Amino acid sequence: MRSILSLTLSFVMFLPAWAQPPEVVQIQKRYEAAKPDEKSLGFYSLDWAMNLKDARARALKENRPVLLILNTNITAGTNFFSGHT
Amino acid sequence: MDHVRGSSLAWPESLETLRPFILTWWSGRTIREMPTDVHALFDEAGLGNRHINLALVVLSPKGKVLRSTVPTINPGYFRGNPDNQGRDFKDQLDELFHGLPLPTIKLPSHPKLTLPDICSGGQPAGVRISLKFATNRLNHFRTPVIEAVAFTDELVKSLQFPSKVVYLDAARLHPWLEQMYPPAIMDGKGGFHKITGKLRLSPVDGKESGNGPRFAILTGDVQFYLDNQSRTNYQGSLQVALEYRGIGPDLFALRGVLDAVVPKGPERIAMTAAIESRPK
Asked: Which residues have C-beta within 8 Å of that of residue B1, sequence separation ≥ 6?
């Protein structure tokens, strides 16, 4: 169990857990718990292009349709991709 | 309507229905802000006289508008049931795409995730902030909010390695902290009236600090005051671990967490932010 934990944390801050101060390890563990799990990120597994121009260029090259999502929100800055809508 | 991303679109069958498409988006306060190329498609789709919070436009591989719709939601029918939300949106997608020749796209066993990120170079170039929320009455938050924020000169300077304990005004982290709110809560001008707090940045005396990386810890409570009609305010608790390499004072990497409970009407929405430097 200890070795699994050390391996996991070594990906986070580039040092094995034993080489890090306990305060840092504790925050890293909280960070790992706070990260979204893969299951909740299905939205980001779709094939996104970052703008219409790129989407059109790829669609032509790959012979695929494009779905353009338009979203407005007059009461706040909004970004459908990031989720602050 | 614009919370569809976090509710109906989180339905796995809706995601599979969208798999054949290359997806892209445009978001803004009003359609008047649309760039010319997007506005041309908006007009071509016949949406010009409609108010939209959300519209879907299907383009052929050659860029012609094939279909469009302004999806509807029906909270009465949903009865707070996320399955009903998902099924209803899936039905609307099926209707929109009915009869279109769509390619079959097989999802790999480990699909690549396209997450918001910082495109500029450098380490760190910025941070990625992932916001998770506890379940709420309208099921808005099943897809996390993910924002990428570039480092500014002020952020870099504020987070230099401290030789002793120093205190930072929370306003110095404003580019990060202004991302810490749930979707569908702004009902005014958007943004924050103010963000306040005093944060403690302290060096960590680790046993490797003589030769290896050095660490510091940033902690403190932050008060958030939304610039909305409800004058929503809440407190967040921030904890960040910072890593420094070499002999200079500049930050190399960080990981952190902010916890808050955000009031929204009768609800109290638990929010957790995971903060990570990018690209490493």
From this structure: B53, B54, B71, B73
User: Is B93's pLDDT higher than 70?
Assistant: yes
CB proximity under 8 Å: B 191-250 to A: 191, 204-208, 212-213, 215, 217, 228, 239-241, 243
Q: Is A3 on the interface with B (CB under 8 A)?
A: no
Domain span holding position B15: 11-97
Interface test with A, best of B110, B255, B278 (most A CBs within 10 A): B255
Interface pTM, i.e. ipTM: 0.90
Q: What are the Cα distances from residue B220, in Å, to A12, A75, B8, B259, B262?
A: 22, 30, 36, 11, 17
Residue A2 binned pLDDT confidence (cut-offs 50, 70, 90): very low
- For residue A48, the chain B residue with the least C-alpha distance is B23
Structural domains counted in chain B: 2
- Give this prediction's pTM: 0.90
User: In the block, which residue shows the tokens 């890593």?
Assistant: B243
Question: Does residue B46 share a domain with residue B170?
Answer: no
Q: Is A34 on the interface with B (CB under 8 A)?
A: yes
- Candidate from B5, B54, B63 with C-beta closest to A59: B63
What contacts B240, CB < 8 A, 6 or more positions away? Answer: A27, B217, B218, B219, B254, B255, B256, B257, B275
**Between these two residues, B165 and B134, which has the higher pLDDT value?**
B165
Burial (0-12, 13-18, 19+ Cβ within 10 Å), B188 = middle
Is B107 a domain residue?
no
* B239 DSSP β-pair partners: B219, B257
Q: Is A45 on the interface with B (CB under 8 A)?
A: yes
Same domain, B252 and B144: yes
Query: What is the spatial distance between Cα B250 and Cα B128, in angstroms, rounded to a whole number?
Result: 19
Backbone angles phi, psi at B43, to 5 degrees: -70, -45
